[in-house]
Amino acid sequence: MSGESFFASAEDRAGEPGAVCGDTVNCFSNDNAYFYALVSDGMGSGEEASFTSRICSIFLEKMLRACNHTDVTLRMLNSFIRSKNSCTGTECSATVDLMELDLLSGSASFAKSGAAPTYIVRDGAVFILRSRTLPIGIIRSPDVRVTRSEISAGDTVIMVSDGVTQNNDECPWLVSLLSASEEIAPEELSRLIVRKAAQAGSSDDISAVVVRVEAATAG
């Protein structure tokens, strides 16, 4: 990705007006030239769901900013959530949808635990990355599926919570929107996805992260 630039935008909305959003979205980078985008959906609703997803976000950011490996970090996070549940007598869990983008090579990995699909838009075509995994904190070893892809100039990556797709991976209205999204700025696109998901009747918390890679301009 040398000589290229990227733009990221995140948006979320609680499922009910005035309610606490159980989703957490986050974007950050570390000193090893890796960029991370995260969507975490706390299972359940309200304060407890929000608290669990925020714990996941804070834990992942601290560990990955310190240049720890993603697989080790996810195992530690899973153990941490399970230990918290054991101490408090609760059964909290959260999805993790984590993109790790190598800013030097353009290689990206997508680690998913219980997460909704990720969509990659390239030259108007929409590619869908799926997983059938359990959220973090449920079983002893984290159930994680990692998919790798090369990301280059012109590509847009869209990560969402299941409040957007409503358990329909194909999500026709979203795929239609994304296939014609080349001229829509990331900030506008993330807001548009959240708004249209609400208009489609979603009563769940709704989140979207949009990351676009662009070629550097001359001069």
Give the strand line-up of the largest sheet: 1-10-9-6-7
What structural class should be given to the helix and strand makeup? alpha+beta
* Element-by-element helix/strand order: EEEHHEEEEEEHHHE
Strand fraction equals 25-35%
* Radius of gyration from the alpha-carbon trace, in angstroms: 17 Å
Keywords, please?
Phosphatase 2c, domain 1; 219 residues; alpha+beta; 5-stranded antiparallel β-sheet
Task: Tell me what you see in this structure.
The protein is an alpha+beta fold and 219 residues long. The chain has a single domain, classed as Phosphatase 2c, domain 1 (4-Layer Sandwich), CATH 3.60.40.10. Helix content is 30%, strand content 32%. The protein is built from 5 helices and 10 strands; from the N terminus they run βββααββββββαααβ. It has helices at 46-65, 70-88, 162-165, 172-179, 186-199, and strands spanning 4-13, 23-29, 34-41, 96-102, 107-113, 118-122, 125-129, 145-150, 156-160, 206-215. The strands form 2 sheets. The protein has a 5-stranded antiparallel beta sheet with strand order 1-10-9-6-7. Strands 2-3-4-5-8 form a 5-stranded antiparallel beta sheet, with helices on one face. A hairpin with a 4-residue loop joins strand 4 (96-102) and strand 5 (107-113). Helix 1 packs antiparallel against helix 2 (70-88). The longest helix has 20 residues, at 46-65. The relative contact order is 0.22. The mean pLDDT is 92.
